[in-house]
């Protein structure tokens, strides 16, 4: 009976570490993953934790054999692991899984929210991958609040260069 609780304890500890520190086992699992992304360290650790808990509970609370407790743990662990694998895959392969970088801003349409002086910074607002973002912006000339612009380059962290959007391209959006 103790082995079930040890398996559950170690798996839960590793699961907490995976969630808080990062997925340190995922590289090893990628090499053997034949499931199309459903096999993750979260799924494996969820399986082991559930196996240990259910097996331990079955042995403690009932008078079943170790074999029956093991089978119950495997079945329950498989169900929980399938759910954890599907959830992990959904989160890592979903539409918002892409980490937005400064290169994603280039070419995007935006609106000036704080006027941009000819020799200084203003602010623009844009939506990238469904996320509204405000950035500091420079332009070749002064631009008033409300002007439609296009991001043409990155000047540094959180600072972009913009140019005015031509009326014909602005109307087609």
UniProtKB/TrEMBL annotation:
Annotated InterPro entries: NA-bd_OB-fold
Membrane keyword on record: yes
Domain of life: Bacteria
Residue stretches spanning the membrane: 38-59, 66-87
Keywords assigned: Membrane, Transmembrane, Transmembrane helix
Protein name from the UniProt record: NfeD-like C-terminal domain-containing protein
């Amino acid at each position: 009976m103790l082995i079930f609780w040890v398996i559950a304890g170690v798996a839960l500890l590793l699961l907490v570490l995976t969630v808080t520190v990062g997925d340190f086992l995922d590289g090893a699992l990628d090499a053997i993953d034949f499931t199309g992304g459903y096999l993750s360290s979260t799924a494996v650790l969820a399986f082991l934790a559930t196996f240990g808990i259910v097996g331990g509970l079955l042995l403690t609370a009932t008078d079943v054999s170790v074999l029956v407790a093991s089978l119950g743990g495997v079945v329950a662990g498989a169900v929980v692991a399938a759910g954890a694998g599907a959830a992990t895959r959904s989160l890592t392969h979903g539409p918002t899984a892409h980490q937005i970088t400064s290169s994603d801003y280039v070419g995007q349409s935006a609106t000036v929210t704080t006027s941009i002086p000819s020799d200084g910074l203003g602010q623009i607002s844009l939506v990238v991958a469904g996320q509204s973002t405000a950035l500091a912006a420079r332009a070749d000339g002064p631009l008033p609040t409300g002007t439609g612009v296009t991001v043409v380059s990155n000047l540094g962290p959180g600072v972009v260069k913009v140019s005015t959007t031509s009326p014909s391209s602005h109307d087609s959006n």
